[in-house]
Amino acid sequence: MATPVTAENRFLVEPTGGEVVMQGPLGVITKIPGSATNGVISIVEHPVAPRILVPPHVHQDNDEWSYILEGRIGARIGDDEFIAEAG
Description:
Order of helices and strands: EEEEE
Strand order of the largest sheet: 1-2-3
Helix content: under 10%
Mean pLDDT: 86
Largest sheet: 3 strands, antiparallel
Strand content: 25-35%
Distance between the termini: 33 Å
Structural class: mainly beta
Low-confidence stretches: none
Shape: globular
């Protein structure tokens, strides 16, 4: 059964909103923490400076969905490599 949408379970985060967890060439800004959704989803923004390598890593407990807001980024998933453009 779906949870009804109420004022208590809706989120509005301004573009500059969220909790800054890490700043620098690879940032982490938590827009909506997983704890606010019973672990169903979290929304995190990762500002990445040009020419910065994000270390290869694996997520054990969740999937990651990425949406490129501006610029482009290279990625490798398994043996597949590609360039993701904004949008």
